[in-house]
Amino acid sequence: MLSGHRSHQIGLDADIWLRPGRALNLTTEDRETIGSPSVVTANRLDINDHWTPAHVEILKVAASDPAVARIFVNAAIKRRLCETREPGDTDWLRKVRPWWGHDSHFHVRLRCPEGSGCVEQQQPPEGDGCDETLAWWFTDEALNPPPPAPGDVPPELTLADLPGACRAVLDSE
Ligand SMILES: [Zn+2]
Fold it and tell me: How close is the Cα of 38 to the center of ligand 1, in Å?
């Protein structure tokens, strides 16, 4: 995915669709226009039928990479990862942080390369993040403005929609 904000442009952030990669022979046109369905229900409280075990695996692999500082996903995705976590999953789950949007892609933030002069963000808080700080994301305060009405499924995102969906991550903790 391409995107417009600063940390993407210096190469420290990457957005990755949650669409399973069933075809590797995409045309240039496909690459520019392909989108991904949301894996979160319209009320933002749970994941939907687009979620697969492969999503857990890709997030685990990405978050386990020492070069990765954080991964941002929708809170419903984080909660599902918490519900299905296994002993020893603390270290990678710690890096997977809830954020608004991010229901059809996940957002990878890399550590500063050595000698780059960029300033490293603080580490995420200790623990796997499957605690009351996660519960907050499902309160009215966090879900406000209210989610779409039941049955009002969000449209698929395309590249043109992304900068807005990701911009706030830059200011996140
Ligand atoms: Zn993003």
Answer: 13
